[in-house]
Amino acid sequence: MLNKLKGTGTAPARPSWIQIMNGLIGGTLGIGVVAYMADAADLPLLMAPFGATCVLLFAAPQAPLAQPRSVIAGHVIAAAVGLVIMHLFGPGLMQMAVGVGVAIAAMQACHAVHAPAGANPLVILMGGVTDWSFLITPVLLGAVTLVLIALVVNNVGRGRAWPVYWY
Questions:
Q1: Is Transmembrane tagged as a keyword (predicted)?
Q2: Which has the least CB within 10 A, 24, 30, 69, 102?
Q3: Inter-residue contact 35 to 46 (CB < 8 Å)
């Protein structure tokens, strides 16, 4: 048993300075633009899972969980699950657990797994969100904005191509 805890491989190498700068610039631009849009339009566009989305988009852009389909659909699917749970059962600890589990299963079934989106049911159930417009603002608009920023940031420079796939 203890042998399994050691792992079977080695840790990856430290990212290059270019990759580190991509994370710094992308994360700053991503959240900065969404925050600016939220302030300018007086709309609630920010939610904590978007910070984790930026980590994937700008520090691990080649990962399957960082592709546009997973980012956008994953956030929408998980938020929809959270809203359904909220409307059917109201807030509560068991509802949060079931919401996250169902969101994971739904994202898997739709081939759109995005780890940060797993927090969306918690945001909804802990925040008492009941308005279905939450799917559009902040979820869809925020996710699409971050993907558009990633299209620019992740394609600057020679030999860089993102996304790996769209669907």
A1: yes
A2: 24
A3: yes
